[in-house]
Design goal:
The protein is built from 9 helices and 19 strands. It is α+β, with helices and mostly antiparallel strands.
Length: about 350
């Protein structure tokens, strides 16, 4: 397991660790309720430096990556980011990624454990283009801020008034003597900002944010609480809700990850055909479980027929403390309120629209 650069700081804060994709993450700090509340009412700080990063350089870097992902890259403005999927010739996912377009290179930000897989996929199709792939995880750290006081915290640590960042907009800055890149990330809540930090400067930036945030109600936020927020927001995660047999449209990635106006890319024909057909046989949706205990992978039935399965399960404060889940359900059973039974029976669960309503 690859340890976090700030393992010793998290250990001092009584962090409990677990492994995700072969990399260490902080599960929690014994403050799950406070961290969840801070993410909604104050500010929460999460160490996401377990994510993996590829760097692409060369004259053809943009056109090459444009032909490899479902999202627009050619016309992506320098200084912005985009969310994309990488799919094989059958339209099934290799991974998902956030692409940062900088003046001299592209950064590809992926889930832990998928960096080597993504690099191998890209290198397979890198033939005559002037583009080079570099492993860059060791160069970059990523800290995630959530909550309505994020702006006040960034104002305090940068010494300048922080103007809110739209989703995927970027802004360079200086924090604790480090040159950082601020990236709007509002997938989970409307104030989210990711702070890209040179890995050597992670400790200084973490300490500066923690110290300045003390008067703003800042709480360190572990991976398990981040997962709770993710599921409540209806956001799928590759490796949990999406795997190498998932077609992006099944996970409802179309609006955020797929450009229908760009040129050809690997797997485009399958995606275009499925889009033209107008529906997938199954789709990711929400499930209300009440007090029913069920694990990811649990089969869902309607009568005697298997209609889907669960992928993520959490206990949701926003839903009155009941368990809620993400899962795939057949198109004929997607209507919110539809009752399904778990494979072990006889408990029933209800289909719910995403995101879950607070």
């Amino acid at each position: 397991m690859e340890p976090l650069s700030l393992h010793f700081l998290h250990e001092e804060a009584r962090g409990r660790f677990l492994e995700v994709g072969g990399r260490e993450v902080v599960a929690d700090y014994g403050n799950a309720e406070d961290a969840y509340q801070a993410a909604h009412e104050a500010v929460a700080l999460h160490d996401a430096s377990y994510r993996e990063v590829l760097r692409i350089t060369g004259e053809d870097r943009v056109t090459f990556l444009h032909g490899m992902v479902t999202q627009e890259v050619n016309n992506l403005p320098v200084g912005t980011a985009a969310y994309a999927a990488l799919v094989n010739v059958k339209g099934a996912m290799v991974a998902d990624a956030r692409i940062l377009k900088r003046e001299a290179d592209l950064l590809v930000d992926v889930e832990p454990g998928t960096g080597a897989k993504v690099r191998e996929f890209l290198e397979k199709y890198l033939i005559s283009e002037d583009a080079e792939l570099h492993e860059a995880t060791a160069d970059h750290g990523l800290l995630r801020l959530l909550g309505p006081r994020t702006g006040a915290l960034l104002t305090a640590v940068t010494g300048t008034d922080f103007a809110p960042l739209p989703h995927h907009a970027t802004r360079p800055g200086t924090l604790a003597g480090q040159d950082v890149l601020l990236v709007g990330n509002t997938r989970l809540e409307p104030h989210g900002v990711d702070v890209w930090v040179p890995r050597a400067g992670l400790e200084a930036v973490w300490r500066a944010l923690s110290q300045a945030g003390a008067d703003l109600g800042l709480e360190p936020l572990g991976f398990e609480t981040l997962e709770l927020l993710r599921v409540e927001a209806g956001v799928p995660r590759y490796g949990q809700d999406m795997v190498d047999t998932t077609i992006p449209l099944e996970a409802d990635l179309g609006p955020s990850a797929i450009s229908y106006n760009k040129g050809c890319y690997i797997g485009q024909e399958v995606i275009a055909r499925a889009t033209f057909r107008g529906h997938m046989n199954r789709k990711l949706t929400g499930l209300l479980l009440g007090d029913v205990e069920a694990a990811p992978g649990t089969e869902l039935r309607r009568g005697e027929k298997k209609v889907g399965w669960l992928t993520s399960v959490v206990r949701s404060p926003a839903q009155g403390g009941q368990r809620v889940a993400l899962g795939y359900v057949h198109k004929d059973s997607l209507e919110p309120g539809t009752e399904l039974t778990l494979a072990q029976g006889p408990a029933t669960v209800k289909v719910a629209a995403l995101p879950f309503k607070g």
